[in-house]
Amino acid sequence: MKPSMLIADPKGELTQLHQKDLEERGYEVKVVNLRSPFSSVKWNPLTPIYRKNKEMLEASEKIKVLEDRGVYSFEGKEYGRYEDAVGECNVKKQRLFDEAYEDLHDIVSGLCPIINKHEPIWESGARNFALAIALAMLEDSGNAELGMGEDRFNLYNLTKIATDSDKNCAGLKKYFSGRGVLSKAASLARQVLNSAENTRNSYLTTLYDKLGMFSDMGICSMTSGNEIDFGCMGDKPTAIFLQIPDEKETRHTLASILILQAYKELVAKANLEKDLTLSRPVYFILDEFGNLPPVHKLEQMVTVGRSRNIWLTLVVQSYAQLSKVYGSEAAEIIKSNCNVQIYIGTTDQKTLEDFSKRCGNYAVMKKSVGTSTSKSEEYSENFSFEERPLVYPSELQRLNKPGDMGNAVVTVFGFNPLKTRFTPSFECKVIHFKPTHIKDTAGRYFDEEDVFYDIKKRSVLEMVGELNIKVEKKLNRVKGKGKQWMVKLIEVLDKVLAFDEIEEILGFVEDGDTKMVLKKIKIIRDRAIKSGQEEIVAGLYKVDAMILAG
After folding, report:
1. What whole-number distance in Å separates Cα of residue 281 and Cα of residue 391?
2. pLDDT in tens, 516-534
3. What pTM did the predictor assign?
């Protein structure tokens, strides 16, 4: 069975050497190009979260009535009572929301890692505020009038909202106001928005620094849509090349997020299988892994990945790289769960010593000879055993040298270590190099106006809703007075005026100020005449006549 692969390709050379051959072998090949993102396949890490949330919002529609049997069904299961079907549906909704929340948290944690362990409050606050914005956008997607569709639920808009810091953050405060008392978005945002101005500015400055890569329109373009389904790697042979520019470290964060998301989606797919494992093996071949930012939950990935038929190959220059990125404790967990380790070479002394210890020791017989000072002809022999390393650190350091390259030492859990030689790839007959003459993919223009999500729209709709309630209350009071012309006036005004103008006229109606009502009607009628609104003009004349008739 052909395995699927996710391959880190820092220089882009692996893509050039293997893409064509893989395609001829029946692989679907996708290239995530962080070096030239305008030409990359699109990948929006927020898309799966949006779809989970949409599934949650539409879950109630799956409850069906089976009239012929007098029962209710939800997702293939039947229930005798409607309440039971609703209860199962609500559990599904909560599960989907929890998954979406966890996925969002993982992505935001990758974007806003806590690096300063001595004073984490600023980075922690920035992370929580970014999560609050993402959750607010997710909440907005439940209201079609706001326009927060799948195409706008992206990191570009998250960044635009985060940087919308007008005077005293009035726009952001308005955006988070009016949400439900159980809104996690509003709750998380309070730490930043309700703090003193200097404190708030420190939080926001930290967040701006973390999201700085999204000032790059190429990255915004690449993450504005989604053309990758990682779950398909378990169904059909797929090769995803992840090109990571070593000279642009700010983009490395996205590589770490992509690796985690691919793993999580594959685990979710494995959980749907009977034996909880993928039918097709998937290999993560991660070159220069030690130069990437930390992949969230890597310890769990290494520990349980192989039971899901997911295999990780981590290429590092030394164990010290792992310790620097993940900390000593996590690095030890990662190392101890890599059951196959291949040593080629390093200059790091501790790595040399650790790998020497990993290879173990063997016993050697030691012979010692002694002579007597009093009797020169007498001597004695003693034999003892002592342990020595199977391979000394100094031997490992000289394993590959000019004129003798291609050597490796391999340790496998449960087996003795072995020293071996690599067959150069160009001499391996099963590997066919077919250089891919990759044409420059046409860059895809990023239309900011089309993708942009204006948070002010939500504030306006909220204000309109409040005015609508006020107008409705006044209208009911007006109708209660029994004046037919008042009702007719409202019907006409509703077609031509904004809510605040209607509210003003209703105030005169309530006060019984007929003179001001007629004056306002004349102003509106003259405006309607100039704009050719004949129906409105006729309606207002009719209202005039009704008022004058008493």
Report:
1. 34
2. 878 887 888 888 787 777 7
3. 0.79
